[in-house]
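Practice problem: predict the structure.
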Amino acid sequence: MEPISVYGYDHRMLERHPPPTTTVLSPARNDPTTENTSSPVPPPPSRLLALPPELRSQILRHLLPRSLPAASPSDPPVWLRGTTAILATCRLLHAEGLPLLYSHNVFALDVVWDCCTFAYRYFSQSATTHLLIAPRTMAFPDDLAPRNVALMRRFQVRVHHVDSYLGMMKYGYGGSGLAEGLADQVRWLGRILARLERVLELRVVWRDDGGRKGVAENVLGPLKALGNVESCVVVGKWTGKGVEE
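Answer:
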């Protein structure tokens, strides 16, 4: 099986057809020594599919990419790469494995003045070392299949507010418009999360280079008001001082 990441799954494995069945070729029609028969050869029974669902779930958890627990609520999750090729083998494994991939892992979202992205950081495993690879980003939720987004249940949302100087350097914008634009992005993300059936875990990390506490309450309000969130932790950072709620 080809080892690919959750990033590659959405781009390369959204639609896969089941493997074709093996058939016995018919002999030549004009050959009198052979019979003209054609019948499909059934595949051998799968030992994996014969296992109880609980055991299959444990095997899928081991094979699929998974996020590791963060050392602290403010640390972004890091993924261990796995393989998603098994999800393309049959409909049963696809139906059982997809919720394990998207519902049981933590997805880190970065919200800035002009966009919201999914940051995928993972370890590259070798025989002796584990190297942390620079994060790959995807526009959220546009670069992810809607059916997969609907399965997500755990998020870390990092909201980045900058001062006027950095705002002009990064976005060509400054002043109070930085907070207003960031608030629009958070409200938009809140509407997406509100459409989910439920959110089991929501960790919000506030990063403010401007040093103004009052901005956080206004910007983060839509996330803190979500009614489908079972567990919510908000961690704030104002000019180097940590504040936990």
